[in-house]
Amino acid sequence: MNNTLQNLINPDYLNNETIKRARASFLSNNFLPNIQLQSFLKENTLKSLQKEMKLLSYSHSYKPDQHSYFTASTPESFISLLESKDFKELISGITGIKIKDFFCEALYFGHKNYTLLSDKDKIKESTAFFFDLNDWNIKFGGYNWLLNNQNENIIYHPKANSLLIVKQSNKLRSTIKYINHQAKDDKRFIIKGYFTQKA
After folding, report:
1. Sequence-ordered list of residues with C-beta below 8 angstroms from that of 146, at least 6 positions apart, any chain
2. What is the pLDDT of residue 2?
3. What whole-number distance in Å separates Cα of residue 144 and Cα of residue 125?
4. Is the separation of the CB atoms in 118 and 67 below 8 Å?
5. What is the third-level CATH fold of 5-197?
6. pTM for the full predicted model
7. Which of 11, 36, 121, 144 has the highest Cβ tally under 10 A?
8. What is the arithmetic mean of pLDDT over 69-96?
9. Over 70: is that where the pLDDT of 40 sits?
10. What is the rounded CA–CA span in Å between residue 141 and residue 118?
11. Range 146-169 average pLDDT
12. For residue range 115-152, what is the model confidence (pLDDT) as tens digits?
């Protein structure tokens, strides 16, 4: 992939007015700061990344009281996007935080996979993100469930080429619901991670 934003992402997200509206939407969710940016990558960029994701060597990560899913190293093409100064400025423009660094991993969830809310988790103050590679039927489970400490919650429908950004802290937790037998052989492919902010 070319590492310039103009060649990678939907040009709508390079428009100052769009960024202002996205920031207003993100900040308006006081109890659950979040936003889902749809049609995020250009179509050719998405198709290339989808192919890369399916060719990765995944291993099963399983901790019964915390999670079950398959994980691999994120494709370098997506890492290059996250590392770019322009991309960090875009995320800063939307969230209002100054990006210092990031962590991410490629994942897929299939039948019997999940993540749980656990008291063992040490939640860092950060901005989490979930980039979905394919559409998903929430009748299968496997959707994002956001919950704050006042038991207010939001369910997000996974959608291909969407970037979900969530302000994460001890007051806001995110989990992915157990995937039931209706999914059969279907899999939800995600790049999941978080941005850390400058002091």
Report:
1. 32, 34, 153, 154, 155, 156, 166, 172, 173, 174
2. 43
3. 19
4. no
5. Jelly Rolls (2.60.120)
6. 0.92
7. 144
8. 94
9. yes
10. 19
11. 86
12. 997 655 555 677 899 999 999 999 999 999 988 777 77
Give the residue carrying structure tokens 């997200």.
Answer: 13
- pLDDT the model gives residue 154: 86
Q: What is the pLDDT of residue 1?
A: 44
Count of all residues that appear for the chain in the document: 199
Per-residue pLDDT, averaged over 35-50, amounts to 96
Place of tokens 């989490």: 128
Contacts 24+ apart (CB under 8 A), 28-35: 31/148, 31/150, 31/152, 32/146, 32/148, 32/152, 32/153, 32/154, 32/166, 32/172, 33/95, 33/166, 33/167, 33/172, 34/146, 34/154, 34/156, 34/164, 34/165, 34/166, 34/167, 35/94, 35/164, 35/165
What is the SS3 string spanning the chain? CCCCHHHHECHHHHCHHHHHHHHHHHHHCCCCCEEEECCCECHHHHHHHHHHHHHCCCEEEEECCCEEEEEECCCHHHHHHHHCHHHHHHHHHHHCCCEEEEEEEEEEECCCCEECCCCCCCCCCEEEEEEECCCCCHHHCCCEEEEECCCCEEEECCCCCEEEEEEEECCEEEEECCCCHHHCCCCEEEEEEEEEECC
What residues have CB less than 8 Å from 174, skipping those under 6 apart? 128, 144, 145, 146, 147, 166, 168
The rounded mean pLDDT for the chain is 90
| Domain residue ranges of the chain, discontinuous segments joined by + | 5-197
